[in-house]
Amino acid sequence: MPAPLRIGDLVIDPPILQAPMAGFTNAAFRQMVREFGGSGLLATEMVNARGFVWLDENEAEHPDRLWGVADEARPLAVQIWDNDAATMAKVGRRLVEEYKISIVDINFGCPVRQVTEKAHSGSYLLREPQRMFDIISRLVKACSPTPVTAKIRLGCSPENVNCNEVARVVEEAGAAALTVHGRTAKDMFKGHADWDRISQIKSHLINIPLIGNGDLDSAEKVVAAFENYQVDGVMIARACLGRPWLFAQAAAALRGDPIPPEPTLKEQRNVMLHHYKLVTERFGEEKGTILMRKYACCYAQGKPGARHFRSHVATIASATEFYAVVDEFFPVEERPRNPSSAAP
User: Which intervals hold domain DUS-like FMN-binding (predicted)?
Assistant: First the structure.
């Protein structure tokens, strides 16, 4: 069992983190993860700092992405993004004072064009380490004593990998931990995460922990990450979206306990229905149902008949339609394997 992860004065145990993912890791999803257990630190969706300031100045409701944060169990991280140090510091301070969050995380890893090329934020800033330093140091001062962390990619492109330099900048600026996704921004989510590159970053850090992220889709891979690479923690991202029980499986594996089996398809169906209930309670039937489309597709991924289910669930607009599609098209039991397709 790896040692608990320490971020500032916080002890993250087990050292398995749930990644912040835009459009997915809202309060309903985080509740699903908590109910299964196994994650030492959960995170919100990433919050646009400039948008937050605009809402505040216009006395509008705070972002939906902060739904549930005030009353949620701790520890909890909120990830923010922008390229202006003063704006980031202002929002960070509000999150600490008003929401009492455990960690302020800075997104320097998002590769999406709307964030990078249009807003010159996220992974775009990897090409400007000094600007990263200014943002981090200003935020650290504003949020003290709440720890500030950063998430990066290996670089902007395979031809411009500068994660070692950036790691030193992140630590020198006062961040309490560094998370690294093992792809470049240009890679998006193609190919495989380079865990050797992630591991090499450890020698460029002096005191802060290194958290690895990328392609962790099984308990066995989480164990292998700790055994084979120089990381202090791991972060699970896309693989958990239709499998909120993955954290519990990974935590058991790290303890050396038997890995809990995948829930049956009937059990997974019930998990999805529970998730739908949480979403619609917050957003109402119409908006909640539309929001649930993408989650439902995640729950079906890799299952027999998934494509057929996705094509139908993608058009639902009411609870009646959702339940009808689930009843008719979500698989309930495994299809028997065709003996003729078995390897000799």
Answer: 18-327
